[in-house]
Amino acid sequence: MAVIPVARQPLTFAERTYVPQILGGLRTTFRHLVRKKTTLEYPEQRPAIPPGYRGVPTLVKDPNGREKCVSCQLCEFVCPPKAIRITPGGIPAEAPTAHVEKAPLAFEINMLRCIYCGLCQEVCPEEAIFLQNQYSLSGYTRAELVHDKQKLYELGGTLPDQHFKWDRKKAAAGRGNAH
Amino acid sequence: MSDFFFNLPVIVQGFLKGLAVICVIFPIAGICSMAERKIAAWIQDRPGPNRAIVPWIAWIPFFGTFLQRLGLFHVMADGGKMLFKEDSLPGHVKKFYFVLAPILAMIPALTTVTVVPFGAYLGATGQIVPLGLAPLDIGILAVFAVASLGVYSLILAGWASNSKYPFLGSVRASAQLISYELAMTLSVIPVFLWINAPGREATLGFARVVEFQSQAGFWGGTWFGFLMPVSAFIFLVALFAETNRTPFDTIESEADLVGSFHTEYGAFKWGLFFVAEYSHMIVGSAVFILLFFGGWNPLPWVPLATAVGWLHHLTGWAFTVHPLFVGVCSIAILLVKVLGMLFLFMWVRWTVPRFRYDQVMKLGWQRLLPLAIANLIFYALAIAFLQK
Questions:
Q1: A38: which chain B residues are within 8 Å (Cβ-Cβ)?
Q2: Number of structural domains chain A divides into
Q3: Which of A30, A33, A40 is the best mutation test for B, with the most CBs of B within 10 A?
Q4: Is position A82 within any domain?
Q5: In a domain, A33, yes or no
């Protein structure tokens, strides 16, 4: 690497008086004084959430209102801080979604442990768990911050996908070729 | 009503006038603290404090929101907090002097106000009658003498705090104030050389300086700031140093001295130091404007009397030449100029970084003092030559 010696320029008289520099600085600060402010005034103004944002993990339902989670527990196993706890349960035989085989009896995400890594979303084979846009979460007690199934669906809402994986599976099984 | 006022005993008159002045200075000092925060914020591209609001003012449609955005109620919130928080007295301080120091800080700050005229009206024969609490014939000397006492409170605060940083800070304060006092005093001498003549009276008073700047003609109406720019510059720089403002606030230096002399202070005692600082700024700005920027004259070459004459001529209203109206006008003009100066103080604060302590000393002794002396000699010779 070539070394370029740079001679230090002696300061001119004007520079040594500070005055032109200070006046220049005053001009700069005055421009900032009258400029449009960049502050986002938070509770009233919200930041735009970029796509792919990883907010609070939620559970979603499909457009028919069926809970998508089949309690395979992959998210529970992959979760690095062990924030997820699932109690698997069956689906009653007379239920319209009996062909799905399983659904979580209880699904808890401990938000005090969650690190928002998104591995649960990545690993979910049913596209049932999503880290959505909510970024501000608070509570008064520890218990309040352990999200149960009801709370998770409340936060998650419905995912407008058109897969209907289990319905197609049922239809295919009806035609005699389940796989 | 004015007759009633002038028939009161002199002491009661003085008391009322003093109260009136305090009622102006204190709110300005309080609002200065908010202006400081707002201007700091604006220069840093932030909106600044804009949340506090009193409910029944929030009901006023646009004005209420405007005041809220201006952060006006944060002043009250801050003041209320300062009044009601615990006024702690650390165990290791020298109690008597510790309590005395902030009180002493207020005394010179408010005493200097008395000798500064803040307006004028035109007497029966058209002569200028200055308005002030106690306009002394030796105004400038009184200001210098009393304002210098302000450093005692800082020394006392630093010493009574009985800990290292406050003490170091107060030593710095005393060294700095002494250094810049010299340059400041020397820089105003040309002004007084210029306006003085043998046999005249009250030629060291501020009223005379402003009167001199309100004369007719080109040279009569020129403000001394244009006539003696170097004097004005030295005075301004020294004023920044005397009021401990950036770039000369090595005394406060929260980075290396943890706030220096007010490290151990809290609550209202701490607040008093700042009211004193702002009062110093207000009085210092007023003195600077009286000496170099025409005092209560609205524009250069347009003295108050001329301006009032124009107003009377334009509108034809009789009250525009009434002494009361002229007096209020002159006070308003001076106040606007002082507020402009205060803005300059804050603007500079967020522009120029703080000088290192050795740079402060070097600038004071090796640059400003020789410059002030050279300036004085130049003007002394020039005045001797011109008035020969």
A1: 45-46
A2: 1
A3: A33
A4: yes
A5: no
Q: Which of the two residues, A108 and B273, has the higher pLDDT score?
A: A108
* Domain membership flag for residue A26: no
Per-residue pLDDT at B124: 66
Q: What integer best gives the mean pLDDT of chain B?
A: 83
Task: Using the Cα atoms of residue B199, residue B201, residue B205 and residue B207 in order, give the sign of their dihedral.
Answer: negative
Range of the domain at A87: 56-162
User: Per mean pLDDT, which range of B96-105, B117-126, B337-346, B352-361 is the poorest?
Assistant: B117-126
Q: Which residue of A has its CA nearest to B48?
A: A39
Kindly list the domain boundaries of chain B, sorted by start residue.
1-84, 91-386
ipTM exceeding 0.85, yes/no: no
A26/B46 touch (CB, cutoff 8 Å), yes or no: no
pLDDT of residue B202: 65
Q: What average pLDDT does the segment A59-70 reach?
A: 87
Q: Of A109 and B207, which is predicted with more confidence?
A: A109
State mean pLDDT over B65-74.
83
Q: Using the beta-carbon criterion (under 8 Å), do A22 and B348 form an inter-chain contact?
A: yes
Q: What CATH number is associated with residue A136? A: 3.30.70.3270
Interface check for A26 against chain B (CB to CB < 8 A): the answer is yes
A132 in a structural domain = yes
